[in-house]
């Protein structure tokens, strides 16, 4: 959309102690360009991160091993997985993230560990979300679609996207934006279904 950013995690904020801190650098741009994200294209690769802090190293390893086993067995796809054993954090916690890289977009899926929750279950939650996305039509994953809305509404020109699942968050953001900005928004699909959203800014 014409904006260049750089982001890094300085401290991971695991529940309940929190304290997460990121650094975000946004370089000046000349306004937001419209985009069309209606077809994701072919899947190119899947990458992942298995991270843990203030926990035994085997927690991050088990998360990684379970994710790799399921994806390679059920989806027949190789995964590039990075393991981070002791990320900076104020307390213990674990995290698994999977990134599906398509020809025209990316989609991300994650799961957090918690006390008493097996590392394998952490991996299973992220893999299940990835599989659900791959089985549905749509370009944007359900966790990203509502976050795109403010930017597409402010872009100079018409934008559109399809999503694998219309969420309550997306519907709420569309309602709010429609009341604050002079942009025409059209939507097809109901909550829980795949759908398409268009912004008419011209």
Describe this structure in words.
The chain is an alpha+beta fold and 202 residues long. The protein has two domains: 135 residues, RNA 3'-terminal phosphate cyclase, insert domain (Dihydrodipicolinate Reductase, domain 2); 59 residues. Helices cover 31% and strands 32% of the residues. The protein has four helices and ten strands; from the N terminus they run E-E-E-E-H-E-E-E-H-H-E-H-E-E. It has a four-stranded mixed sheet, covered by helices on one side. Helix 1 packs parallel to helix 2 and helix 3 runs parallel beside helix 4. It is globular, with a radius of gyration of 19 Å. The chain starts with a strand and ends with a strand. 29% of the residues are buried. The model has no long low-confidence stretch (mean pLDDT 94).
What is the H/E order? EEEEHEEEHHEHEE
Number of strands: 10
Distance N to C terminus = 16 Å
In total, how many domains does the architecture comprise? 2
List keywords for this structure.
single chain, 202 residues, alpha+beta, Dihydrodipicolinate Reductase, domain 2, 2 domains, four-stranded mixed beta sheet, globular
Can I get a quick summary?
By secondary structure, the chain is α+β, with helices and mostly antiparallel strands. The chain is built from four helices and ten strands. It folds into two domains: 135 residues, Dihydrodipicolinate Reductase, domain 2; 59 residues.
